Amino acid sequence: MTVPRAVREPPLHHKQNLQLNLETCHNLCRDLATPPGSARYYSLCFLPKPQRQALTALYAWQEKLLAIKRECSDKNVALAKLNWWREETRKLFAGEAQHPISKALQEKLGFPDSQAHLRMTSKVDATQIHAQHFYNILNAVESDLTIELYQTDTELQNFFLQTSGVIEQLSARLLGGQDATLLEQVRQFGAATQALEHFIHLRRDLNSHALYLSAEQLAQHEVSLDMLYQKPMPPYVKNLLQAQLGSLQKKISTSDCAKLLPHCIMLAIQQKLCTAIVSENYNVLTQHIRLTPLTMWWCAAKHFLT
What we know:
Elements: H1 14-19, H2 22-33, H3 39-44, H4 49-66, H5 68-71, H6 75-93, H7 100-109, H8 131-145, H9 153-174, H10 180-200, H11 202-207, H12 215-220, H13 235-253, H14 261-279, H15 293-305
C-alpha cells in the first residue's frame, strides 16, 4: 500500500539519515516517551544506561502507535499512518530501520544496522523478543481505529492487555524477566497503567473523540456522552469516575512487580496519583492532575534504596 505523502512519518532524507547517530535516536525517544518530570522518567532513572535506553525506545514506539487515533480524525489517514509503522516494524526486524525510534529499538534488540559505524554494544536481554509481539500490538491498534466506543468492559480491558500489557511484558523480558507468573502480573499491570493514563487524560480523549470508557460503564451509571461535557460535573458523572478509579486502584494495589525496579517505581507513583485524584474530587474533566517531580523522585529513590 502506498502511503499518502501527507500522512507519512517524517523519514529523514538519505544524507541526513547517514549522519544520524544512535545517541541522537535515543535522545529523540527520551524526549517523546520519558521527558524529564514524567512518571516514566522517574521509573527508569536508576536503570543502567543500556536498559534505560532499551525501555525508552520501546515506550516511544508504543506512544507513536497509541497516539494515532487521537491525532488523526480521518480513519483512512489513521490507517495509512499505522500501515507506515507496520512496514517500518518489518524493516526494524530486518535490520533496515529508517525512523529514529525504530533505529534506537533495532540497536537495543540486537539487529544489525546497515551503517556499521552506528552500531553499539548493549547488555540487554532481547533473546525472548520476537517480531510477532510487535505485530500483535499493531493488529490491536488497527482494530481500535475502527471502534468509536467499546461496548463492554471486557472488550476495553482486552485492548489494554493486547497493547500496553504486551509492551510491559516485553519490558520485563528486556530486564531479564522470564518467570511466567511474573510476566502475567506485568501484563495485567501494563493494562492498568494504560487505563489510568486514559483516566487522567479523559478530557483530552473526549475532545479527540478517542474515548476509552465502555458503553456498559456509561449505562451502568446512567451517563450520556453529552453529560461528560457539562460543567459543573453532574453527580452521575462523578459516580462513574469514582467507580472507575476505585476499580483501577484495586488492580494497581494487587499488582506484584517486586522483582522489577522500574515497575515497582511506576506502581508507587500510580498509587500516589490515585490518591491525588481523590483529593482533587475526581476533576479529571476540568484539570490535569499530576504529581510534583519531588514526589515522583521520592517514590523512585525509596524503591531504589530498599
